[in-house]
Amino acid sequence: MKVTVEVIDGSMVMLDEDGxxxxxxxxxxxxxxxxxxxxxxxxxxxxxxxxxxQVSEFFEQRADGTxxxx
Length: 70
Known about the structure:
The chain is an alpha+beta fold. The chain has one domain.
């Protein structure tokens, strides 16, 4: 299945071709987010580099590397 991965409201959201959510991961740490992107990559087709860029950018905006949206 081809999907897209986007960062929305402090979560990494996987969307199917119709834009329906088919997976979600709360962004609490960069390490865990990267691990989840790798897991999804084993099962789905998406722009891996773009997903990592979005996740990294999300955490760069937070000085301590954790999400403030718990």
